[in-house]
Amino acid sequence: MQLKKIMLATCAFSVLAIPAAHSQTIGKAEDQVRWRQSAFSTMGWSMGRIKANVSGSYNKEQVTQAANTLQALANSNIGSLFAPGTESAKGWKKTEVKPALFTDKEGANKAWANFAKEADELAKVAAAGDAAAVKTQFGKVGQACKGCHDKFRVED
Average pLDDT, whole number, for the chain? Predict the structure, then answer.
């Protein structure tokens, strides 16, 4: 039950707070980087929850909540947090964005649109509750993530 409350709060935050932040155009580059780092940390945590479920004991409720969180973030216009001047700004930590993201907007938008499409499908599949179908679609979401990471993220 505690996990459900955390996931619902996270999803509500994602759906309400991040778009509000976009519309206000956060002033300092460091603040924009913190917002996007927080969103991507939430996405990573959600991916981890789903992976744990498709690799072990499957809990439809956990998977659905995590998939809905991914879907909300994928459709939140997070791209506006990659404004000029944030390329080298430090948020909670040093940014992991490659300069290519700021010069290849078309490629970045295409990669993000693919992620959003796959995240939307994952939310639908998760709601249906078929663990095998979730595992397959989760792989597609992972490939969409990789498509962006390979081009636009500095790996540790």
Answer: 87
Whether the model clears a pTM of 0.90, i.e. scores above it, the answer is: no
Is 87:28 a contact under the CB 8 Å cutoff?
A: no
29-33: Cβ within 8 A, 24+ apart: 29/83, 29/85, 29/86, 29/89, 30/89, 30/90, 30/91, 31/91, 32/81, 32/82, 32/83, 32/86, 32/89, 32/91, 33/81, 33/86, 33/89, 33/90, 33/91, 33/92, 33/95
Using CA atoms, how far apart are residues 98 and 87, in angstroms rounded to an integer?
8
User: Residue 7 sits in which domain range?
Assistant: 2-152
User: Where residue 145 sits, what CATH number does that domain have?
Assistant: 1.20.120.10
> What's the total number of domains in the chain?
1
